[in-house]
User: What shape does this take?
Amino acid sequence: MKFIHTADTHLGFELIKTAPPDEAGRKRRAQSVFDNFVAAVEHTLAVEADLFIHSGDLFNKYYIVREKLDALISPFDALSKAGVPAVIIPGNHERSEFPFDLFHGLRGIYVLDRPKSLLLSLNGYSVGIAGFPFIKDHVKSSFLNALNATEYAGQRSDFNILVTHQTFDEALVGPVGFRFKAGRPDTVSRDTVPLDFEYIAAGHIHRYQVLPHPLKPGLSFVYPGSVQRMSFAEMDEEKGFVEGEVINGRIETRFIPLPAWEMKIVEIEAAGRSPREVENTIRDQFRRFNQGLVIRFNLVGGVAACDYPEIDFCRMRAEMPRVLECQFAIRAKTRWIHR
Assistant: This one.
């Protein structure tokens, strides 16, 4: 029995609260995100996997127009036609729910939009799957309540899988290696999770990592990470998804890498300088540019926007060689003003 586990695909990546300054660049990045998701689905079909798991944040926003949604979920049609069941849970970016009829007509697509469990027969094995949407508040108490509400304990199967979109203690994030510790209100302690599972398909943390269960050797909380570098906090992280397979009676996993765009931050002391000086400093970086680059210029040195010269950022973008996306930000005390 073989399965593919992915999460945090953030389809519709171009949809954000405010219009991005580099709208065309954001759309180029969104296409790359979608392409990586398609690659994960194509790999599922190529290796003839028996199951596809998505553990939350399929979409980047909780509201996307229906026509756009239908296009974004089109890869699931290929899974359905191939007879590969897919299990999906809503994450925090979907506000823990999907439109109720989103996958209507697609056979074998199981949406755990409330605490549920199901039993599947996969390549000679009975596989019990339990899961529920992202829990935002009171997660320490609500997590076990939601898990019990799935009624997973009544199932008898060869392998049990938990699908969840939460933060577990010791999860690692960010360029400086921040670790979530037990006791935080947004963090679930791994040792509180029952030992009835053989695999915990986790989502929400964008860095690939495998956290052992403190009380059961061989049981792990597996974060496949996001399929693309979503923010500059992830600029050095490898991206991909996880392939799991039953070998000698236990689940073994391997990480399958995906193409990830290059990300760079350039800091420029700009306060008190002339527009021409700052623009020429920006132009000096153009030789580093390529079409697979996401670059951000941080203009620093001032405490307020009025400390910086007036720069025509649209003109600067038009001058520079083609990149995936170019961002500019001005630092005003502890706040960043995006241009």
